[in-house]
Amino acid sequence: MGLIATGVDFALLMLLVELAGWGCFAAATCSFLISTACNYPASMRYVFRRREDMGRMREASTFLALSLAGLMLNDACMYVLVAGGIDCLMAKVAATALVMAWNFGSRKALLDAGG
């Protein structure tokens, strides 16, 4: 499921930057948020086992909080790399590696029944 969300993230980033003329940071934030919204139902259905002690509202709230932390990591990494002269798309590749590790690890620890 993460690969699909990553594909959505990169496709939107490129469309927003190349076709719509958005700045790199606004596009990266928007694409991240949309891909995360697409990722939630799929990952909670197919990747993680639902915890019996956690209701849907708490599960969604935890997923959102972890995703917002991931967004901060994404944007910080993008900012540092682009400010250092790295191309927006290459910066996104590095940010994605960092954020994927954060997202999977934090969700596994806090949302998965086998956690």
Oligomeric state of the chains present here: single chain
Strand count, sense and barrel status of the largest sheet are: none
Instruction: Assign an overall shape.
Output: elongated
Work out the helix count.
Answer: 4
Low-confidence stretches: none
What is the terminal-to-terminal distance?
A: 18 Å
Structure, described:
It contains 4 helices and no strands. It is mainly alpha-helical and 115 residues long. The model has no long low-confidence stretch (mean pLDDT 91). Helix content is 81%, strand content 0%. Helix 1 (2-19) runs antiparallel to helix 2 (24-46), helix 2 (24-46) runs antiparallel to helix 3 (56-83) and helix 3 packs antiparallel against helix 4. The relative contact order is 0.17. It has helices spanning 2-19, 24-46, 56-83, 88-111.
How is the topology of this model organized?
Layout: H1 2-19, H2 24-46, H3 56-83, H4 88-111
Helix pairs in contact: 1-2, 1-4, 2-3, 3-4
Descriptive tags:
115 residues; mainly alpha; elongated
Gist of the model:
This protein has 4 helices and no strands. The protein is mostly helical. Helix 1 packs antiparallel against helix 4 (88-111) and helix 2 (24-46) packs antiparallel against helix 3.
